[in-house]
Structure formats: structure tokens, C-alpha cells
Amino acid sequence: MKKTIIITGASGDIGKAIAEKFAKLGYNLALCSNKNNVEYDDDIKSKYKIEIKNYKMDISDFKQVETVFNKIFSDFDAVNVLVANAGISEKRKLIIDVTNEEINDLIDINLKGSIVCSREFVKHVMDKSGKIILIGSFVANYGCACESVYSASKAGLVGLCKSLANELGNFDITVNMVNPGFIDTKMNNNLTSAEKEDIENMTPLMRLGEAVDVAEAVAFLAEDSGNFVTGQAINVDGGYIPL
């Protein structure tokens, strides 16, 4: 029986890279996004003999999350992995300029959304086993000036990861976190060439990360290689050293 992975935020660059990696590994894909469909699923279907289903889900609508997760577990026989990847970034601004709406959106999507997705996943796998992988950010370790609310939302995932790992280990459910550094995705298209060069100079590997780098770390945690790893945060940041 093929394993199935749930990927939230599936329409983004990192979501796509994770989907492609797990398709190669033979997983069925439950792709969740706030769009009606992802753009790459037909291409994946043409390459791999797997089942792919798309689910429109607003991760900040907690009742909708519950409904979609019930549908996923009804549609697939063996759902084993959740990758909580959905998230939004923050426009760089001083804290005094951050609006209440922006605060609510960042916390609801980046933190609360991952909490609710984890809860709904666990409801269905407590008598089996499973793996939860939260996608955080390097700012969870360092903070980031003028992105304080975003940083707080990602730092909150660290507490969630460690707490759930302790809570769920007895049920053979591992919980880990992948913290990407600066990844060359559409989300970082606002960076100028000079800013990217500065980031590369602060990165020992002297380059920006790629979405596939994140996908490889997720696969390590989701496969048997990660069976005795829980409560950990893997930094996929090229060794980034903030100055």
C-alpha cells in the first residue's frame, strides 16, 4: 500500500519541490492550497504512477481545515506524513507600522494554521503512526529586524515542535521542523541583486538555497532515515551567519 503525504501550501515553490521529491519516492500526494488547483500536478502524474488529489483549503479557517482533513483520510487508505508548509511573509516595516490585520494574518496562518493541521492529522493517526514536519524559518533562531511578527510566528513553531514531540512519541508519531534560510523562491523576489549578494557573503556555502534543498531535508525526516529523530529543527540555511 502506497504511503500518502499531506502538503499544505502546495502551490508555492517549496511545496512544489516537496511534492516532486515524494512523487519520486512513490508517495500519493494530498496537495492543499488556498487556490483551486496547483499548476504542476498534471506534469507529476505523467511521470509517476501515483494518485494526486487537490484540496482547496484556507488554513486560517479552522473548521475548513477539519473538513478537508476528514476528506483526505477518507480519500486515501494510508496517510502517513504531514508537511505543514503553508505560510505567508511579512512586509519589512517597523513594529509601530504593523497593522492589527497583518498581525492576525501572520499568526493565524503561520502559527495557528500549523497547530490546527497538526491536531487534525493526529486525530487520524494516533492508533497507527505518523510523521509531522513543520516548515519554519531561520528567523526562528535569530529573529529579524522589521519582520518581528513573522519571526514570532515561526519561533512559536519551535515550541510546538518540541512539545508535540514529547506528547506524541508514545504513539509512534515523530514531530520535527525544517528551518529554511534564504531560499531562491518567488517569496524572495523582492530582494535586489545587491541584497542577494550580501546574503551569499554571509553564507559559508556562498549561495542562496534552492527549494529542492528543503525538500531533501523533509524527505530525510519522513523516510525511515528519520525514524529515531523527533523534536528537532534542521536548519537548511547554508550555515548562514547574520552579521
Walkthrough of the structure:
Helix 4 (100-125) runs parallel beside helix 6 (148-168). 41% of the residues are buried. A 7-stranded parallel β-sheet has the order 3-2-1-4-5-6-7, with helices on both faces. The protein has helices at 13-24, 41-47, 62-75, 100-125, 139-142, 148-168, 193-201, 211-222, and strands at 4-7, 28-33, 52-56, 79-84, 130-135, 173-180, 233-236. With 243 residues, the protein is of the alpha/beta class. Helix 4 (100-125) links the parallel strand 4 (79-84) and strand 5 (130-135). The mean pLDDT is 94. The longest helix has 26 residues, at 100-125. Helix content is 43%, strand content 16%. It is built from 8 helices and 7 strands, in the order E-H-E-H-E-H-E-H-E-H-H-E-H-H-E.
Question: What's the helical proportion of residues?
Answer: 40-55%
Structural class: alpha/beta
- E-strand count: 7
Q: How would you sum up the global shape?
A: globular
Strand content: 15-25%
Q: Low-confidence spans: pLDDT under 50, at least 5 residues?
A: none
Total number of helical segments? 8
Q: What is the alpha-carbon Rg in Å? A: 17 Å
Span from first to last CA? 49 Å
Spell the H/E element sequence. Answer: EHEHEHEHEHHEHHE
Please outline the major beta sheet. Answer: 7 strands, parallel
Give, in spatial order, the strands making up the sheet with the most strands: 3-2-1-4-5-6-7
Mean pLDDT: 94
How is this fold's topology laid out?
Elements lengths: L3 E4 L5 H12 L3 E6 L7 H7 L4 E5 L5 H14 L3 E6 L15 H26 L4 E6 L3 H4 L5 H21 L4 E8 L12 H9 L9 H12 L10 E4 L7
Parallel strand pairs: 1-2, 1-4, 2-3, 4-5, 5-6, 6-7
Helix pairs in contact: 1-8, 3-4, 4-6
